[in-house]
Amino acid sequence: MEVTTAVIPAAGFGTRFLPVTKAQPKEMMPVLDKPTIQYVVEEAVAAGIDDLLIITGRGKQAIERHFDKSYELEHELRRSGKDERLDRVQHIADIADIHYIRQKERNGLGDAVLYARKHVGDEPFALLLGDTIVQSERSCTARLVEAAEGCESAMVSLEEVPWEDVPAYGVADIESTASSDRQSFPVADFVEKPSQEAAPSNLAITGRYVLPPEIFQTLEATEPGVGGELQLTDAIRKLDHVRGLPLEGDRFDIGTLIDWLEANVEMALEHDEGEMNTAVRDVLQAQLETDG
Ligand code: UTP
Question: Whose CA is nearest to atom 8 of ligand 1?
């Protein structure tokens, strides 16, 4: 199956990151010099996908503005000979065909995905949460798309998390991680936010999926779950074939202060611009010396 469309839900409230998310979308929180959602869009594009649908909502206009062409800014950068900055600004506007639809009420991730039905049609599609960055050598979505090719399964990216953290996640119930293609493996079921004792594994859903179009019928037939919201995981559980693919690289849930901080520090340390790298190292070194 060929995957040509990516859906990026970005309509959530972001209450875990208040007050910074009171008047700006969490998906626009910067990690180094780019907003979170730009990393997400670039990951989809790196998977060969150039048709993107972003699910937005009230107060999310900054996302559309970010990917829009900015004539005045481009004119000014051109006029002042700032070519490198001009290239970066033009790249954002030309990155892909980006479409938008507004989720009218925040009724959960499953409800947000349902808004993509008309745009996606009868094809499989990639789903990337707009507040989650995956830093890896190869685009996480590219790996999922490749793994999904030739099999009719939904493909869900899974990450081993510390056991004490499983109550915060949807967790996979698997028979074995051994698989014929040595990459993905069948998932029998998912358990949403289990207690540590009841968790069937510590393999957590990470916010990257390839889903078949049947997910829309399944979502429509699903009742609201935890928190009165339509839960995507509840609908995925009802699909006939679901496989898990282990995540490679680092995942950051930018909806939380700690992950946002970690993302900035780790990515600054890895950045090829020496200046950024050195600045963080100096701060960390000075702190270590103070701590003795
Ligand atoms: P979260 O589970 O982080 O929910 O959403 P949230 O409401 O945004 O954040 P908190 O829990 O209040 O801090 C995961 C992704 O799904 C989108 C979010 O924008 C985020 O990218 N989402 C969530 C929607 O698009 N619509 C919703 O109704 C809920």
Answer: 12
3-state secondary structure at position 36: helix
The mean pLDDT value for 223-227 works out to: 86
| Helix, strand, coil percentages for the chain (3-state, nearest 5) | 40, 25, 35
Length of the chain (residues): 292
* Ligand 1 first shell, C-beta below 6 A: 9-16, 55, 103, 106-109, 111-112, 129-131, 255
Does residue 101 have a pLDDT over 80? yes
Ligand 1 centroid vs 250 CA: distance in angstroms? 20
154-171: per-residue pLDDT in tens?
A: 999 999 999 999 999 999
pLDDT band at 291 (very low <50, low <70, confident <90, very high): confident
Atom of ligand 1 nearest to the CA of 25: 19
Residue 209 sits in the same domain as residue 74: yes
**Are 178 and 286 part of one and the same domain?**
no
Tell me: do 149 and 264 sit in the same domain: no
- Is 177's pLDDT higher than 70? no
Give the pairing of strands 132-135 and 250-253: antiparallel
DSSP character string of 122-167: SS-EEEE-TTEEEE-SS-HHHHHHHHHTTS-SEEEEEEE--GGGGG
Same domain, 179 and 272: no
Ligand 1 probe mutation, 109, 208, 234, most atoms within 8 A of CB: 109
Same domain, 194 and 163: yes
Same domain, 271 and 153: no
Long-range contacts of 215-223 (CB under 8 A, 24+ apart): 215/113, 215/154, 215/239, 216/113, 216/114, 216/117, 216/120, 219/110, 219/111, 219/113, 219/114, 220/114, 222/110
